[in-house]
Design goal:
Elements (H helix, E strand, L loop, with lengths): L3 H7 L5 H19 L11 H17 L2 H11 L9 H16 L3 E10 L2 E11 L3 E2 L24 E2 L4 E9 L5 H9 L8 E5 L7 H8 L4 E5 L2 H4 L21 E2 L37 E4 L1 H9 L26 E9 L2 E11 L4 E11 L7 H23 L6 E8 L7 H9 L1 H7 E7 L5 E7 L4 H10 L9 H11 L19 H7 L4 E8 L13 H8 L4 H19 L8 H34 L1 H5 L21 H21 L6 H12 L22 E3 L7 E3 L1 H8 L3 H29 L1
Helix pairs in contact: 2-14, 3-10, 3-17, 4-10, 10-17, 11-15, 18-20, 18-22, 20-23, 21-23, 22-23
């Protein structure tokens, strides 16, 4: 699945020469500030902090990059998609390692819907004949790429079957803004087949939106401007996508709900009642197929109609036109709609003091093909963490809380292994889970991290004491320097990004409200191998993290995050950072309402004044849009009042928490409340039209997929111009935050 923030990090630094010049100056300053490690850490008394820091030093000494190399080489030796023979070999290998390291290991199986391609045909029938090859040939020097017979071909999982023929329309990235541009040009995709570029949004949004606009089929290709020769040398010379690379991936309606489409909201166990296929709500409505830019070029070259706007154009050697036609294509797809086993490896190390409080660490093991970068680079880091912690446990150094290390199956088709496990065990997780720490792959460069903002201050301390393996400064300082280089402000502390979707934290965080992290390094390991045949051990060793030094850095960051949460005397949550962040989100939604109001007022005035007609080219069709309903002024008072109360209580909590609590009974009571704080931001009824997503502060966007929407109920009601719902969601969110403040008040009372 998409490891979304690594792609964001990849855009931080566009000029590496400029970066190194500034870093060479900046690091001298930064290093002075972070060279000494403080003996005080959140959640620990001064004495227990010394013990914890000594433990972490021993943990670091045990980490061995050679293990990561060896394990990746084994697990990526063959394609290991869901249900494949080698997938089970990977599962058995991981389970055996955890057992060897002293964990109590269970392999849990869920039977999930996993369609695979039976027939794929794409041909152009007008104005000339062309049949797409739909193949990824072997490349010189990469033995993995010769295993074509074992690999799943390029396809989009959860596309529906279909046989459609129609004119072709180029829709850029196929996101809402692109259709707005097409509307201005008078181009309608109804009854057409659209061709869209990858990137710009999660892939599943492209067929979803196309179907809503009336299209009958969707083709997705990777333009070389985004991850091909425009960016650098292509594989096997460099890491970028060659002309035959195809990005596989699921296109189920992930923003509606992840997991097995036939068991919505409950685990797909052997005895589970399953929907009929025609009852599943998260499948695409139209057939969709991914192709290479080799196969896309003849189709795009045959298009006429208006020249594409500048923002639509890519790096192929053509003039980009939109259509429709005269290119006419046939798209025919058939799938095997079978169930396949999704195996979860759950390795448990029982806590010595609080066995019924769980710290959970996870990374998936399944891949679309070999999956060296996605997901095995993250999994081997997790395994090395577990090995070191297991060795410490054998010496009698046990974590206070129970630690669970999880290798999830069937993540790629739609977060299935983790979602089905969470749905099956949700009652126990609500009682016991403290936090979930996720990875999904890693590379070289800068630390990217998203997560619960109540743990931002806690996580900042970790980033200050783990060093970048190349530069020798803290991972915080290196990321901070990157922010400055790109023109941003220097961070005072590590800024966690808000979590959207696309990896296994989603069921923990957005469904059950368990505080979560998503971690990884990137920015200096860009490429085009994502979900292609070429995401191999050979490519990873040459271009991603050759010595696995950033894999070890990830193990240090994630290992500390897990260990500190497992051993903290008082769980290290705080609320001032969270309050500041939510207040910023509130300002955004109020400005969004004002911006939309002004845009519609301007739009309607132009229409009424006839300015569209005056501005139109006399040789082109004049398109005069319809006027839109005016945006009312919303009553944000319930939300503003709730935020004011939250600011007050978070300040009081900060003051109260400065006094050390020593009474064991009070500490236990405080921890029980803190553990459930994130859950108090959820509601069982969930968000409008998608009740699976229960968190009212963070959710994937309905039309962004992986991309997060903060305060999603209010924000998306404004964006979708559902003005009655805006007021309803303001009231709901106000109640959520008022209840949250009451929980903080309970903590303050105990502390006093």
């Amino acid at each position: 699945m998409k490891f979304y923030f690594i792609f964001l990090i990849n855009t931080i630094i566009m000029n590496s020469c400029k970066l190194y010049l500034i870093l060479s100056i900046s690091f001298c300053f930064f290093h002075i500030n972070t060279n000494a490690q403080s003996s005080k850490i959140m959640g620990f008394s001064e004495e227990s902090a010394k013990t914890q820091l000594a433990l972490e030093a021993d943990f670091d000494k045990m980490l061995n990059a050679d293990n990561l190399d060896e394990w990746m080489k084994y697990m990526t030796a063959r394609p290991h998609h869901v249900g494949s023979p080698y997938d089970k070999k990977v599962v058995d290998f991981v389970a055996a390692k955890f057992t060897e390291w002293g964990f109590d290991v269970k392999v849990e199986k869920f039977n999930v819907l996993f369609p695979t391609p039976k027939l794929r045909l794409l041909e152009m029938i007008e104005p000339e004949k062309f049949t797409a090859s739909l193949k990824e040939p072997a490349v010189e020097g990469d033995a993995s790429s010769t295993q074509i017979a074992e690999a799943l071909p390029g396809y989009n999982c959860f596309s529906v079957d279909g046989d459609v023929t129609a004119e072709l329309v180029f829709v850029n990235y196929g996101i809402p803004a692109d259709y707005d541009e097409l509307e201005k040009l008078g181009i309608d995709v109804k009854g057409k087949i659209v061709i869209a570029k990858y990137q710009g949004s999660w892939r599943g949004i492209k067929p979803k939106l196309a179907a809503e606009k009336g299209a009958i089929g969707c083709i997705i290709y990777s333009d070389p401007e985004d991850d091909g020769y425009y960016r650098g040398d292509v594989y096997p010379i460099g890491p970028f996508k060659n002309e035959y690379g195809v990005q596989r991936g699921a296109v189920m309606d992930l923003p509606y709900a992840p997991g097995d489409p036939l068991t919505p909201g409950y685990g797909s166990t052997d005895s589970a009642k399953r929907l009929e296929l025609n009852e599943a709500t998260s499948l695409t409505k139209i057939p969709v197929l991914p192709i290479s830019y080799h196969d896309a070029l003849p189709l795009l070259k045959a298009l006429k109609g208006p020249v594409a706007p500048e923002q639509f154009r890519g790096a192929l050697p053509i003039t980009y036109h939109i259509g429709p036609g005269p290119a006419k294509v046939r798209l025919k797809l058939e799938f095997n709609w079978d169930q396949a086993p999704a195996y979860d490896v759950i390795a448990t190390l029982k806590g010595s003091k609080y066995p019924d409080e769980w710290v959970i660490r996870g990374n998936h093991h399944d891949a679309w093909v070999h999956g060296a970068a996605d997901p095995i680079s993250g999994l081997v880091a997790l395994m090395e963490e577990a090995r070191a912690i297991g060795e410490l446990a054998k010496k009698g150094i046990l974590p206070k809380r129970t630690m669970k290390f999880c290798a999830w199956g069937a993540e790629e088709p739609g977060l299935m292994g983790s979602t089905e496990w969470v749905e099956t065990n949700q009652d126990e997780l609500r009682k016991k889970a403290v936090a979930y720490i996720n990875t999904d792959g890693t590379g070289a460069g800068y630390l990217g991290a998203g997560g619960s903002h109540t743990l931002e201050k806690f996580f900042n301390e970790i980033t200050q004491v783990v060093n970048d393996p190349v530069k020798g400064v803290s991972v915080f300082d290196r990321r901070n320097a990157a922010e400055v280089v790109r023109g941003g402000q220097k961070w005072a502390y590590y800024n966690l990004s808000a979590l959207g979707s696309g990896s296994d934290y989603s069921p923990f965080f957005q469904h059950l409200g368990i505080a979560s992290f998503n971690l990884g390094f990137g920015g200096e390991s860009s490429g085009g191998e994502y979900h292609t045949m070429y995401d191999s051990y050979e490519l990873f060793k040459r271009f991603k993290d050759p010595n696995f030094q950033y894999g070890i850095a990830l193990a240090k960051v994630a290992g500390r995050t897990s260990l500190r949460l497992a051993n903290a005397e008082v769980l290290p949550f705080e609320f001032q950072h969270f309050t500041k962040i939510v207040d910023g989100y509130f300002e955004e939604v109020t400005k969004l309402a004002d911006k939309l109001r002004k845009e519609i007022e301007t739009n309607n005035k132009m229409i009424n004044d006839g300015l569209y007609a005056l501005a139109a080219n006399p040789n082109e069709k004049i398109v005069i849009p319809q006027t839109k309903d005016e945006v009312p002024y919303f009553n944000f008072a319930p939300l503003q009042n709730a935020l004011n109360e939250l600011k007050k209580k978070s300040t009081e909590f900060e003051s109260a928490s400065k006094k050390e609590v020593t009474d064991a009974k009070k500490i236990q009571e405080i921890n029980l409340i803190l553990k459930d704080m994130e859950r108090s931001l959820t509601r069982d009824h969930g968000l409008p039209r998608r009740p699976w997503y229960r968190h009212h502060i963070y959710a994937p966007g309905f039309y962004t997929g992986y991309g997060v929407k903060t305060l999603p109920g209010v924000r998306e009601a404004i964006e979708q111009q559902n003005y009655v719902e805006v007021s309803e969601q303001i009231n709901i969110l106000g109640e959520v935050l008022q209840d949250y403040s009451k929980q903080i008040d309970r903590l303050i009372t105990i502390m006093k």
